[in-house]
Amino acid sequence: MGGTVSRDDFEWVYTEEPHVSRRKAILKKYPEVKKLMGHDDNTASTMVVMVLTQVLTSYLLQDQSWLTILIVAYCFGGVVNHSMTLAIHETGHNLTYGHGHPMRNRLIGFIGNTILGVPMSVSFRRYHHDHHRYQGQEHMDPDIPTHAEGVLFHNRITKMIWMFFQPLFYTLRPFFLRPKVPGRLEYYNLTVQLIFNVCLVYFTSYKSLAYLLLCTFISLGLHPMAGHFISEHYVAVGDYETYSYEGAYNYLAFNVGYHVEHHDFPNIPGKNLPLVRKIAPEFYEDQKCHESFTAVVWDFIMNPENGPFNRIRRPDARDPNLPDPWIR
């Protein structure tokens, strides 16, 4: 099939992840960075507009051909739904209404979640916090592919298949590797989603719901917006394990591209992340930055040096019961 991946294991390191030490150093030298923490008042209203936009679009597509639905889902709806997953990422860090209003963050997460078709906002938050707490740790970080994924998806064709089904791997991996018992909020999330789905089909047609589900699945797989899944932590140069992206997609992605800055300061909302680098430039000037999500996806698939094994991994070290004051 060509382009067989040269790696047969992860990049193992035996040091702590770099974000905690850099955070401490930046705050010591630039305590004014704390002023960037808080929440973004515009996120909730943006999420509501996206929901209304997708509901209207799904209504207009209820009697259209499947080809039309597929094209609109890839070119338009997929962008909106992927952007919504990143808005839900913001709510997961309590950056929509602030840490003083956790339930408000969950509620707007429920609302935004509706256009994705499947309930994920609460579960995502629980597992995503593990990614921050235990970055790179062998059995604790749910963001890292399994060894089986690295072995099975080892050439251009299979890596393309892996990218296409990325939403399934990304979503289901945590439930198999380190499952958590569903909580009350997850059942609320499920209930709201089921009510929305039933109402959408009842008042429009099953094609409207299929459109939203297609938008979600397509946009998280072989889609330019999905490039951030690869750009954020897959080793591109040297031993860097987190990378930022500085490009136009950040306007659609709540600045998730500033990913080094996000891991350094998960309590800073996306709109303020670019300011971190402006305040403390010497801490980021040597960091590798990607310039194109599309180029990242292309290089990941076509370059035999890249594959699911291109991740920094370290032995488990952190006590899972130890709280992290920076991740709430």
Attribute tags:
single chain; 328 residues; mainly alpha; two-stranded parallel ribbon; two-stranded parallel sheet; 14 helices; 2% strand
Would you give an account of this structure?
There is one protein chain. This protein has 328 residues and is an all-alpha fold. The protein is built from 14 helices and 4 strands. The protein has helices at residues 19-29, 42-60, 66-92, 102-113, 121-133, 147-152, 156-164, 166-177, 184-203, 206-219, 227-231, 259-264, 273-279, 293-302, and strands at 11-12, 244-245, 289-290, 312-313. The chain has a two-stranded parallel ribbon. Helix 3 packs across helix 5 (121-133) and helix 4 runs parallel beside helix 9. It starts with 10 loop residues before the first strand and ends in a 15-residue tail after the last strand. The mean pLDDT is 93.
